[in-house]
Design brief:
The protein has 239 residues and is mostly helical. It has one domain. Helix content is 64%, strand content 3%. A 3-stranded antiparallel β-sheet has the order 2-1-3. Helix 2 packs across helix 5, helix 4 runs parallel beside helix 6 and helix 5 runs antiparallel to helix 6. It is globular, with a radius of gyration of 19 Å.
Length: 239
């Protein structure tokens, strides 16, 4: 745990190279569509700030990297809710910040499933549950800010400007409930569609992740289908 972590950039570049190599002996059963999705996902992960966090603190130790990831998740959640609460959502840069943070969050969540054969098992399922809980409040807060920025929520025929109402709508939409007291308009329809799709993907990824985690009881170990290290050029990586 206190040993330096492997370079995540090198690890994911090797994963990309393996999936581009159709003759890789360890990936013979992986077909074209899966290879393409994993290559695109790894390329996105390499460009995200979360990967840089893992790289910098991984130089110190794996424990330092894991603590840094926890702090990063908490920071993003506070940033999202703080931006919503203090009216920063009306700034133009908020849209770009929200998009980057949402891509960062959902790329990592989908990687939990699609790269489970290349990442280490979770240190603790309890830790993962807690972090994913913060992720939920983070992404609903980002979407709430986007709804406010585009002034695309209506209640009783009036535009919603109250952050708490926007967050309420975002959480209800994420839960795919919909009470009808607040309705989207204009860009809100597109945002709501994106949020519903993202939320369904989030739920599916979380369920699949924990089903797989319960089947692998030993924490922080190589996945069961790992090849011997000398035959597996892409070393496993997991936060």
């Amino acid at each position: 745990m206190n040993t330096p972590a492997k370079n995540p950039y090198q690890e994911h570049i090797l994963i990309i190279r393996r999936h581009l190599n159709m003759k890789d002996a360890g990936l013979q059963k992986v077909l074209l569509a899966e290879r393409l999705v994993i290559v695109v996902l790894c390329c996105i992960l390499i460009l995200l700030p979360s990967m840089f966090i893992r790289y910098v603190f991984g130089i110190i130790s794996r424990r330092a990297r894991k603590i840094a990831v926890e702090v990063y998740v908490l920071f993003k959640t506070v940033l999202a809710i703080g931006s919503l609460s203090y009216g920063l959502w009306h700034k133009h840069w908020f849209v770009w910040l929200a998009l980057i943070m949402l891509i960062d969050l959902f790329a990592f969540i989908f990687a939990l499933i699609l790269l489970r054969g290349f990442w280490r098992s979770p240190v603790s399922l309890n830790r993962s549950i807690i972090l994913l809980g913060f992720n939920f409040f983070e992404y609903t807060a980002w979407f709430a800010g986007l709804y406010l920025f585009y002034a695309c929520l209506l209640t009783s025929g009036k535009i919603v400007t109250d952050p708490s109402l926007a967050l309420y709508f975002s959480i209800v939409t994420a839960a795919t409930i919909g009470y009808g007291d607040i309705v989207p308009s204009g860009y809100g329809h597109t945002l709501a569609i994106f949020q519903i799709v993202a939320s369904l993907g989030y739920l599916a990824a979380v369920v699949a992740y924990f089903i797989g985690g319960l089947e692998r009881q030993d924490p922080d170990v190589e996945p069961p289908n790992a090849q011997p290290r000398e035959e597996q050029p892409a070393a496993r990586y997991r936060d």
